Amino acid sequence: MDVVPVPVPHLGNRCHLVHDGRLALVVDPPRDHRVVEAAAAAAGVEIAAVADTHVHNDYVSGAPLLARRHAADHLVAAAERVDVPRIGVHDGDVLAVGTLRVEVIDTPGHTHHHQSFHVTDRAHAGAGGAVLSGGSLLHGTVGRTDLLGPEHTLDLARAQWWSARRLATLPTTTALLPTHGFGSFCAGGDVAGTGGASVTLGHQLVTNAALTTNREEFVARLVAGYGPVPTYYSHMGGLNRAGRGAEVPAASRPVTADQVTDALRAGQWVIDVRDRALFAEAHLEGAVSVEHTSQFATYVGWLVPWQDDIVLLGDEPGAIAAAVRELESIGIEGVATHALAPGHRMPAGYRRARWEDLAALGDPPVVLDVRRHDEFDAGHLTDARHIPLHELEMRIPELPDGEIWVHCRSGFRAGTAASLLQRAGRAVVHLDDDWDRVPAVHLSVDGAAAA
């Protein structure tokens, strides 16, 4: 057997294609079927089965459409309520995909009916093979258990501990292949590694807290470490149960410069995907900067109220097209797009600065830290104001008058925050610098300087 990882960086996830050289099982595919089909084509294999380890809360599953396109079996836990054609599988079921043996293992915790898939080659029955663990046991941690509501969090955390222990009874040579833990907010706690088939259950037995800590201590530490949840997560379960991933997304629609102006005047979300430095230099008044990076879809989905109209701006058609696909992966479809023409007049802008510029000021300005609460608590500039980016728009009135210098960890979130502040009529300076450079500048810090 062979395993082909299919990274999905804009979701912080990883799909896997497991094959015997002829037929393949795909586990937890993204909505964009093309990346999976490209991996299958490169391996020279046919997709025979597609599995969802759980009803996903962070993206629209591509399993229904992928299964239909390839006349493949779509495997989902029999206990799940989903309105898509599927084969309901139960704990202990053993399925054949070519020469592969696929055993279904109930691993509740991330969701109530979560399952993992232990895949081995029938010709080498004693080998450990690989376990496709979805949002159960991850590299160094487990999937978070609070996404279905606070009333389920503790019970699911206890179930997650038991599920991790159950997976740990598989051969120690078994490769651990989770979906989450590569940047996704679905991971609970710190992720200890992002390796592939080289991460084995044997390694996890001595490094993963779920396997080295008693249940109640583990549960308490896990739940205490949960951070915020992107707001769009609350819509993903419903979309997946309704089979949104079986549909081709509604197409984006190009709009004219005049229509962009109308959208800005109407207060709609006009999102500029260009590099944050280019945005700071010149942009359309009222536009919001969300630079097209691996975090783009997460923060657009988090900041823009669900189903609000969105216009995407950019100067590279390829970047706009990629941004459209990434938004489709979380169920945001049919957005308007506009490619900025060379020389297009963009009258707005603001200053970018480094830590040295802040240190050189005689009278310190209002400094706003837009990192998460855990980042701020670990270490922050003395006297800095703190509002996490995802709370900023509603809390701008809390900030004092005067110019605001805004920073985060790397500059990405601060760029978005600066644009939101300017859109609200505030004078702003974007501190576009790395947090780990603070010690070298000798700015006053409460707590650790590099968090």
TrEMBL record:
Alphabetical list of SUPFAM superfamilies matching this protein = Metallo-hydrolase/oxidoreductase, Rhodanese/Cell cycle control phosphatase
Identify the SMART domains for this entry. Lactamase_B, RHOD
Q: One short Pfam family name for this protein?
A: Rhodanese
The record, for InterPro entries, names:
Metallo-B-lactamas, Mito_Persulfide_Diox, Rhodanese-like_dom, Rhodanese-like_dom_sf, RibonucZ/Hydroxyglut_hydro
Q: Which domain of life is it from?
A: Bacteria
Domain (Rhodanese): residue spans on this chain: 264-347, 361-447
Cross-referenced PROSITE patterns: RHODANESE_3
**Under which name does UniProt file this protein?**
Rhodanese-like domain-containing protein
